[in-house]
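Subject: for your reference before the review

Hello V.,

The reviewers asked for a structural picture of the protein, and I figured it would be easier to keep everything in one thread rather than splitting it across files. Below is the amino acid sequence we used in the manuscript, unchanged from the supplementary table.
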Amino acid sequence: MNTQAKTIEGKPFLLVGVIVLTMFLMKNSRSLLISVSLLTAISTYLMW
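And here is what came back from the structure prediction:
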């Protein structure tokens, strides 16, 4: 029960962090590749 609560509370927090990171990185066109790699890594982490 505790693990499920942590995951449910953690996913929205991670999503907000990803959105903020992407918006911050999108300002720098050079960091576009890094933002895409972070999105794929975090998306795969959430899929588990």
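For the response letter, the relevant points are probably these. The radius of gyration is 13 Å. Residues 2-47 form one domain.

Happy to draft the paragraph if you're swamped.

O.
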